[in-house]
Design a protein that fits this description.
Elements: H1 2-17, H2 25-28, E1 29-31, E2 51-52, E3 55-56, H3 60-63, H4 75-82, E4 83-91, E5 104-116, E6 121-124, E7 128-135, H5 137-156, H6 175-188, E8 194-204, E9 208-216, E10 222-224, E11 234-239, E12 257-259, H7 273-276, H8 287-293, H9 295-301, H10 314-330, E13 369-372, E14 375-378, H11 380-396
Antiparallel strand pairs: 1-4, 2-3, 4-5, 5-6, 5-7, 7-8, 8-9, 9-10, 9-11, 11-12, 13-14
Helix pairs in contact: 5-6, 9-10
Amino acid sequence: MVKIALLLIFCTSLSAQAGLNEWNLNDISYLYSLPKLASQTPEHLMTPQDSESNGALLPLEVYKYVPNVVAGSGNIRIYEKNLKVIGVRVDPCPSFDKNNCGPAEVRMIWQPVEYDKDFNAWHGRDGAVHSFYHLGKKEMNSLLKELWNLKLKNQSNGINTKKLPLNIHPAMSDKKFVKQLNKTFLKYCGKKNLKKVTFMSLLVATRWWRFGSLELQSDGTWMRVQIPRTDLKFIDIFNTASEGRPANNIPGKAMDAMFNIFAEDYPQRDIIFPIINNSYRQNNDSDKEVFASKLDAIYRFRNPHRTNPGTLDCASCHFADPALFYATRRFPDLAQITSEDKYLNPAPKLFNLENTTIAKKATRIVRAFGYFGDKAAINQRTINESAAVSHWLNSRK
């Protein structure tokens, strides 16, 4: 009996340890915390001018090409006082093809962070900038090693990421961890390897967002580039639906949305206007069959093995979750429909792909990774990409 008891204890211990030596979602996608109190400041968040040997993270000479991140707010003031890194994502092989990975990337997500006196809380305003840094294979391996060591140190302190949904990193309350994490990213990122900048500008609160991209050219200049699958250099999302009350600072349930894309100029199978736009809908039970026919497109938009930033436009990517929420809110059993285009959890015993953020049920949150007000907001695409990257790394160990 003693031997059996010891064996059970041993097996239980092995089960508890399983997955601790594997990469997980929060190990490669880091969401920082916002200050909790008015008396605190976001000094733990990196700023555009922070630098190490690679130079400033986001030099003003590059940022000046970004349109106003939040309409009505001075862009330079935002840059100098409010723009902070609220998230970092690591991707050693963006194509997931070991024979043709392309440049390894670190992506920093920036938001204007301000104290909102009306809500007595620190908020991330609803605009964003993403900065992309290219790393060589040797640099990426070195970065991954340092991040792995931070993971092991957290585990020694009782903090692990196994089966945790993607959200604010569980060690963000540890000032030493945050300081070392920032130091690590500053070591590998800066002006010298900054290759791309994307933006989401808030033009009208919870109603109008504009997306675009800038890339560094071979002659050292920065140029606006064309949005994939369109002939546009920026793309807009509008949601003008009435909520029966002021729509500012609420996640939203109503949907009357449109992109600045002509339907005839876009792949027909990927047009989701029959779900999101009131003029396309009948707004009765006949909508159900039409909505169902568009679910494959939504699942493709959220699947990193079906679409990528080179093949998918910003609007479809960022509005997939709101479209699905609206469709399944109208017809709940649509959530049970299966699709070959749906991303499947590659390691269910290791990864938790549940979206636990406010963005899961909202029609006015188009953020991929960051904050809506004082609440974490992450879309399913980012969760799925984080799982795909983690799985790829685990398979290479």
